[in-house]
Design goal:
The structure is a single chain. The chain is α/β, with parallel strands linked by helices. It is about 35% helix and about 20% strand. It contains 20 helices and 27 strands. The strands form four sheets. Strands 14, 18, 19, 20, 21, 23, 24, 25, 26 and 27 form a ten-stranded mixed sheet that branches. Strands 10, 11, 12, 13, 15, 16, 17 and 22 form an eight-stranded mixed sheet that branches. Strands 2-4-3-7-8-9 form a six-stranded mixed sheet, with helices on both faces. The longest helix has about 30 residues. The radius of gyration is 27 Å and the shape is globular. The two termini are about 40 Å apart.
Length: about 700
């Protein structure tokens, strides 16, 4: 089978829309959570911080990529909008100012409400005499000695402004009246905030302190005006396979060098804390090579990463945050019994963050210690900074198990962390490989092989999310543990294929991209098209951009198939268009936890086909990555997945519906309020509700979805 490629042909854009604008719509909904009065105040502040962090990454990756495309391939046409890279950039720049305006307004509102609770982001003028003395003492003793102010003149060249680093910048005037720029980096080693003695709710940001003292730091130059600024740089790295071959370097060495290059790539955005004079802007813009549309004045803090540390330090944080939630141990697993033996009895599903990750960690611990375990093989895309999974793998290797780790070094913004873990794993005796050239390995699979006599058996874990205990508590994800021999044999074939770079291996049960997932999805959609109005499709994923899949869904809608899409973020398909997509309905949920799981569902009742997968319905996932989708056959696990889909479609608190024009509206609350994430927090999926002898109950669960549509 050939690896799929994009077809160059005439496109109809009536049912599709911009990927970038769709993503910005999603991020706007993240921001709007900061305006929801039912959300606790500190959580509202966090949502503003998350919005800002999301937007940073959007500029670094998507905008950076479009800038590169506009230079090397300016005539390339996007297959969803018909726009060139320059046209897509114009659309982006037309939307950003409105988002900044909403952000400023919401931050002002939330900050005012926090002040009523005694949590104040202070200016120097608001400090009491005692607090001013405290800040002055800190400045002289701990801050001033590490500052490095610089004037830009003939002897002092324009400094490199690091990506997302904060600077105090000003327009300086010499004694002769010559204008110049001055820069004061905010040292990364300093705390982001100073909290006042005895009053942790009263704080002042470090850049506020430096703005106050900046006028005394530039010698004979007079500071006429100043602001805080921040430059965002293109962070889209290109790992050139030809260079690897020519240099003879391994991918880890090459990636280490590329990470140093990221800090110096071209600027794509400039943020200023206040409006500056035309003279200042002329001096600055010429140096950075930016246009007016790439420059934004933002009255909120330009770096809001401090918010999460602030929340941890505040005594009153508990009352102004979501109630604490501790993931539970699944009810269908005995904590005192071995996990491997329980999985051998029947398939088990973990639903993060509502279930804890401990059963999977215990599974790995058992595999590391059991004498009948021959090997552990696992794919890793992202790990926690202090990873329990990695430490267990090291222990297994030290215990003499054969441990193979397929480590993806190109996981964006986790490259350095993965490089460090790859070295530690190798030092412990693990065999570490780095995937297939030009195809990121985004699969989530762990294969444990056991030997009893001359017979091998398998326990396989397949998930929708990363092996990262930190995000397992923040993202909704699924983890299936099965002793199926068929799945285990496919897992063994998968790792054998990855060891030799074979992307076109054949599998009996698992679907493996870039060859196997899209073709099967198209086949399953055709199966529902053949059923016409009796057909049903429900897909939960993070995003949909793949043109061929969307075109096939349009055909299904025209055939009368009822289609429910639960897509957290990007959706390039426009639902609700008469005679085209009127049978397609798109739900998006933005809540306390980040929706991240992927479920593919085709049909109803006894004939339902269900998969969990690592892949979103995106071109990059289906055509340019190594991904895995696993069929779910256990009746109880099927029921659990159907219950997830049903509950999320019933959400009328945190769910929005996508409209044909690309905007979203909150679902009308005509029934009792249903917040799906709160439902999952309060009730376990593992509590049996369908007697095993009554499989028709699966049909009843989904018939509710059908009635709801009618």
């Amino acid at each position: 089978m050939a690896i799929p490629t994009e077809k160059a042909e005439e496109k109809d854009y009536s049912c599709t829309r911009s990927r970038e604008l769709s993503w910005l719509r999603f991020n706007r909904r993240v921001l709007e959570e900061a305006g929801d009065e039912t959300v606790p105040l500190l959580e509202r502040l966090k949502f503003i911080s998350i919005f800002a962090s999301n937007l940073d990454e959007f500029f670094m990756v998507r905008v950076g990529n479009l800038f590169d495309l506009s230079l090397v391939s300016p005539g390339e046409i996007d297959n969803k909008t018909g726009l060139t890279p320059a046209g897509q950039l114009s659309e982006i720049y037309s939307v950003i100012p409105g988002l900044i305006e909403i952000k400023n307004r919401l931050y002002t509102d939330v900050a005012a409400l926090l002040r009523r609770e005694g949590i104040c982001d202070l200016s120097m003028e608001e400090l009491s005499p005692e607090e001013r003395k405290f800040v002055s003492t800190c400045y002289k003793a701990k801050i001033l000695p590490v500052l490095s102010p610089q004037i830009v003149d003939a002897r002092h060249p324009f400094p490199h402004l690091a990506n997302k680093a904060l600077y105090v910048a000003g327009l300086m005037r010499s004694r002769k009246g010559t204008a110049s720029l001055g820069f004061l980096p905010v040292p990364a080693g300093l705390p982001a905030i100073l909290t006042m003695p005895g009053a942790p709710g009263r704080l002042i940001r470090m850049e506020t302190v430096l703005l106050h003292y900046a006028s005394s730091l530039f010698g004979e130059y007079r500071l006429e005006s100043s602001c805080t600024l921040c430059v965002t740089r293109n962070a889209d790295l290109n790992l050139d396979a030809e260079l690897l071959e020519e240099s003879g370097e391994d991918i880890r060495s090459r990636m280490s060098k590329l990470l140093k290059k990221r800090a110096s790539q071209s600027a794509v955005r400039l943020e200023l804390s206040r409006k500056m004079s035309g003279e200042f802007m002329r001096l600055l813009k010429g140096r950075l090579g930016l246009e007016n549309r790439q420059i934004y004045v933002d009255q909120t803090p330009l770096n809001m990463h401090y918010v999460f540390d602030l929340v941890k330090a505040l005594p009153e944080a508990k009352a102004l945050s979501f109630p604490a939630y501790r993931p539970r141990w699944p009810e269908d697993l005995d904590q005192k019994a071995g996990i491997i033996e329980q999985v051998r009895q029947k398939d088990r599903l973990l639903f993060f963050p509502f279930d804890g990750v401990e059963p999977f960690l215990q599974l790995l611990e058992e595999a590391a210690a059991r004498p009948d375990v021959v090997s552990i093989r696992i794919t890793i895309y992202r790990l926690a900074t202090s990873s329990k999974v990695a430490h267990i793998l090291c222990k297994a290797a030290e215990n003499g198990k054969e441990v193979t780790v397929l480590m993806e070094l190109r996981a964006r913004f986790d490259e350095a962390n993965n490089i460090s873990w790859s070295r530690l794993l190798e030092d412990s005796g693990c065999r570490v490989i780095y995937g297939v050239e030009e195809y990121k390995c985004h699969s989530k699979i762990c294969l444990i092989t056991l030997r009893r006599g001359d017979r091998l058996s398998y326990v396989t874990q397949i998930g929708t999310g990363n092996y990262n205990e930190h995000t397992n508590e923040q993202y909704t994800d699924l983890s299936l543990m099965t002793a199926s021999e068929a799945v285990g044999l496919d897992g063994a074939a998968f790792f054998q294929n990855m060891m030799v770079g074979n992307l076109e291996g054949e599998y009996r049960h698992l679907l493996v991209a870039p060859v196997g997932i899209k073709s099967k999805l198209l086949e399953l959609i055709d199966r529902e098209i053949a059923r016409g109005p009796e057909g049903y499709i429900c897909i939960k994923a993070n995003a949909m951009t793949e043109r061929e899949i969307m075109d096939k869904l349009v055909q299904a809608s025209q055939a009368g198939v009822q289609i429910q899409l639960i897509l957290r973020g990007i959706c390039c398909l426009r639902p609700g268009i008469a005679a085209q997509t009127e049978n397609i309905h798109v739900t998006s949920i933005v809540g306390r936890f980040l929706e991240h799981g992927r479920i593919y569902c085709f049909g109803r009742g006894k004939d339902v086909r269900l998969y969990i997968a690592s892949a979103d319905l995106m071109t990059r996932n289906l055509n340019h990555r190594v991904e895995i989708a696993c069929p779910v056959v256990d009746p109880e696990v099927k029921e659990q997945l159907l219950r997830i889909l049903h509950t999320q479609l019933e959400d009328n608190v945190k769910a929005s519906s996508l409209l044909p024009d690309g905007s979203y509206c909150r679902k009308v609350n005509t029934l009792a309020p249903c917040n799906s994430q709160e439902v999952f927090m309060s009730s376990s999926l593992h509590r049996p509700t369908v007697p095993p002898e009554k499989p028709d109950a699966l049909h009843r669960i989904f018939s509710g979805l059908r009635r709801r549509k009618k």
